[in-house]
Design goal:
Helices cover 0% and strands 57% of the residues. It is an all-beta fold. Strands 2, 4, 5, 6, 9, 10 and 11 form a 7-stranded mixed β-sheet that branches. It has a 4-stranded antiparallel β-sheet with strand order 1-3-8-7, with no helix packed on it. It starts with a strand and ends with a strand.
């Protein structure tokens, strides 16, 4: 199975980007999927996640992106999206998509599949 991100790039503060993550070799429609990012000099952080249809496509966001980012999925296309609006310099980093959560004690501790990442750079 493979996840391939696209849509990253350079944008000025206040601009928008839409990231895509296309899966292949596996059908991810029964999986929780997520976007993570790693900013320069910082640890990787969860940006947004979305459950599968059975769990109601429930979405969660880190507080810093609430109201600006929107996660969505198109299961027939096996694709995950992240619409990013009102970008600021703090959003700069490498964005990774992840699929199929691994649980420990009922808590998501990892994902089984990861993409290679796409760079997002926001300039002031």
């Amino acid at each position: 199975a493979q996840l391939v991100e696209s849509g990253g790039g350079s944008v000025q503060a206040g601009g928008s980007l839409k990231l895509s993550c296309e899966g292949s070799g596996y059908t991810f429609d029964s999986c929780v999927m997520a976007w993570y990012r790693r900013a320069p000099g910082k640890e990787r952080e969860l940006v947004a996640s979305i459950t599968d249809d059975f769990k109601g496509f429930k979405k969660d966001y880190v507080d810093s992106v609430k109201g600006r980012f929107t996660i969505s999925r198109d299961d027939p296309k096996n694709t995950l999206y992240l619409q990013m609006d009102s970008l600021n310099t703090e959003d700069t980093g490498v964005y990774y998509c992840a699929a199929c959560a691994a649980y420990t004690g009922g808590v998501i501790t990892d994902y089984h599949y990861w993409g290679q990442g796409t760079q997002v750079t926001v300039s002031s």
